[in-house]
Amino acid sequence: MKIYIVYSSLRGNTEAAAFILASFLEDLGLSAQLVGADAYDYEALLDADGLAIGSYTYGNHAEIPEELLDLYEDLPDLIQANPKLKQALAVFGSGDRDYPIYAKAVDDFVEIIEKSGGHLLAPGVKIDGYPDYDEEIAGLAAIAQAFLQLAKENN
Ligand SMILES: Cc1cc2nc3c(=O)[nH]c(=O)nc-3n(C[C@H](O)[C@H](O)[C@H](O)COP(=O)(O)O)c2cc1C
């Protein structure tokens, strides 16, 4: 099962979450390819079996960072073009609870996936700063478990 984790991280918090997710997947016998937003490749995702998106929240209006906008805009097409990926999507990302709108990029990615007919394997995971709260780690673990479940169903 080819799972891609496409993420962006300015200060390392979302990156840490991406690494944690990748290590959970590995522990379950699944392999994940970590892809920084700058190396995002539409063509590669046409062949993917799963995609986890990691996005921090930025800007004056709790925005998706610019480097992830291509992926955001491509998602409706990708979901239509790759039926495997359509069934195997997940979202996580770091924010800061002190901002008026917390980790909205996670909500935005969840929304575009659902609007495009994509299936989220597990609820979006919002992470306050560095991923160290139990519920955040549990959310990432739930994503990994859901990928494992899917891999079993498809075998
Ligand atoms: C200019 C600026 C704007 C931000 N706006 C938000 C925001 O609206 N909502 C939020 O939850 N976090 C906001 N943050 C906080 C970051 O999302 C937070 O620091 C996060 O941990 C960064 O993740 P990273 O380490 O993966 O880059 C903002 C940070 C900066 C510097």
Automatic annotation (TrEMBL):
UniProt keyword list: Electron transport, Flavoprotein, FMN, Transport
Cofactor(s) of this protein: FMN
Domain of life: Bacteria
A matching Pfam family: Flavodoxin_1
GO molecular function, one term: FMN binding
Protein purpose: Low-potential electron donor to a number of redox enzymes.
Entry protein name: Flavodoxin
Organism: Aerococcus urinae
